[in-house]
Specification:
mainly alpha; Growth Hormone, Chain: A; 2 domains; elongated; membrane; transmembrane helix; POT_fam; transmembrane
C-alpha cells in the first residue's frame, strides 16, 4: 500500500512539469533524470564550453607552436631531431584523440571524459612550467637567439618529456569530445534549439581560432624573446581557468548515456554477414530484421533507415529458419548494419586526410633543416 502511495506521489511531481519542458532527444541531467529544458543545456552551458575551448586551445598552442624552438635553444637538439620529436609528439596527440573518443562514447560519457583529460592537461602544463623554471632555463634568460642554455641532465630531460606527453594525452583525449558535448546541450528535435545547435559549431570554430590566434601572436612573441617560463605559465593558467569554467557548468549540462563498445558492434555486423554469405539477398529492406527497440531505449539512439550501399552487409539482418534473435553475432538489426555502413563511407575521407597530413609534415620537417 505504501509503495503505491509513493508511486502516486512521484507521478504527481512529474505531472507538475508539462511534457514539452523535457528535452525530446533523450538527454538526462547530472542525476540521470530526464533533462528539463529550462534548467539544463542551451546557451548558458554552450557559452561556458565555447570559452573553455578557446582557453584550452590557447594553452595547447602556447606550447606546441614553439616547441621546435624550445628543443633547439633550450634542450640543445639540432633542427632535424627537434622537428622529428615534435612530429612524434603531434602524432601522439591524434592517437590519444582516438582513445578519448572511444572512452566518451563507450564507457565514461562525454562529461567525465572531458573533465578527466582536462585535469591531465593541467597537470602536464604545470609540470612543464615548473621543470622549465627550476631546471631547464639555466642560466636565467637563456633560450633566446643569443644566450644558449646549459645542457640538461637525463633526469631533467625525462621530466620534460613526461610533461609534454601528459599535455598530449590531456589535449588529445579532450579535444574530440568537447565539440560533441557542446552540441549535446541543444535539442535537435526542438525547432529553436536545432538552429542553435548548428550555430554552436560555427562559434566553436571561432573560439578555436581565437585561442590559436592569441597563442600564435602574443605568446609566441614572448617565447621567441626567451621568456619561456612566462609563456608556459600563461598556458597553464589558461588551462586551469578553462577547467574551472567547465566544472562550474556541471549542474546545467545535458548528457547522453554511453552506448557501449562500438568495436564489438562493428565486428558483430561483419561476422554475421560473413556467416550468412551464401544466404539469398532480399530484394528490398522490408524483410530485414529491425530489432525490438530495447537496445535503442537503452542508449537514446534512433532508428536509421535502410540504404542500398554495401548491400552485402544486409545479410547480417536477414532472419533465417535457424536464427536466434538473442545472438548479436548472427543477427543484427538494420540500424546496427547502417552504423557500419556510415563508418565505411567515411574511410575515403580518412584516407585522403592521411595523405594530406603526411605531405604537410614532410614539408615542415624539410623546412626546419
Amino acid at each position: 500500500m505504501e509503495y503505491c502511495l509513493n508511486i502516486d506521489k512521484m507521478d504527481d511531481k512529474v505531472g507538475n512539469i508539462p511534457h514539452e519542458e523535457f528535452t525530446l532527444d533523450g538527454t538526462v541531467d547530472m542525476h540521470g533524470h530526464p533533462a528539463v529544458r529550462d534548467r539544463t543545456g542551451r546557451w548558458f552551458a554552450g557559452v561556458l564550453l565555447l570559452v573553455n575551448q578557446g582557453l584550452a586551445t590557447l594553452a595547447f598552442f602556447g606550447v606546441g607552436v614553439n616547441l621546435v624552438l624550445f628543443l633547439t635553444r633550450v634542450m640543445g637538439q639540432d633542427n632535424a631531431e627537434a622537428a622529428n620529436n615534435v612530429s612524434k609528439w603531434t602524432g601522439t596527440v591524434y592517437i590519444f584523440s582516438l582513445l578519448g573518443a572511444f572512452l566518451s562514447d563507450s564507457y565514461w560519457g562525454r562529461y567525465k571524459t572531458c573533465a578527466i583529460f582536462q585535469a591531465i592537461f593541467v597537470v602536464g602544463l604545470v609540470s612543464l612550467s615548473l621543470s622549465s623554471y627550476i631546471f631547464l632555463i639555466k642560466p636565467n634568460g637563456c633560450g633566446d637567439e643569443e644566450t644558449p642554455c646549459g645542457s640538461p641532465s637525463s633526469v631533467h630531460t625525462v621530466l620534460f618529456y613526461v610533461s609534454i606527453y601528459l599535455i598530449a594525452l590531456g589535449n588529445g583525449g579532450y579535444q574530440p569530445t568537447i565539440a560533441t558535448f557542446g552540441s549535446d546541450q541543444f535539442d535537435e528535435d526542438h525547432p529553436q534549439e536545432s538552429h542553435s545547435k548548428v550555430s554552436f559549431f560555427s562559434y566553436f570554430y571561432l573560439a578555436l581560432n581565437l585561442g590559436s590566434l592569441f597563442s600564435n601572436t602574443i605568446l609566441v612573441y614572448f617565447e621567441d624573446k626567451g621568456m619561456w617560463t612566462l609563456g608556459f605559465w600563461a598556458s597553464a593558467g589558461s588551462a586551469i581557468l578553462a577547467l574551472v569554467l567547465f566544472l562550474i557548468g556541471t549542474p546545467r549540462y545535458r548528457h547522453f548515456k554511453p552506448t557501449g563498445n562500438p568495436i564489438s558492434r562493428f565486428c558483430q555486423v561483419i561476422v554475421a554477414a560473413i556467416r550468412k554469405w551464401k544466404t539469398e539477398q532480399p530484394s528490398n529492406g522490408d524483410d530485414l530484421y529491425e530489432g525490438d527497440g530495447r537496445e535503442l531505449a537503452d542508449n537514446s539512439s534512433r532508428n536509421i533507415l535502410h540504404t542500398k550501399e554495401f548491400r552485402f552487409l544486409d545479410k547480417a539482418a536477414i532472419i533465417t529458419s535457424k536464427e536466434r534473435l538473442d545472438n548479436p553475432w548472427s543477427l543484427c538489426p538494420v540500424t546496427q548494419v547502417e552504423e557500419v555502413k556510415c563508418i565505411l563511407k567515411l574511410f575515403p575521407i580518412w584516407l585522403c586526410t592521411i595523405l594530406c597530413c603526411v605531405h604537410s609534415n614532410g614539408l615542415f620537417i624539410r623546412g626546419t633543416r
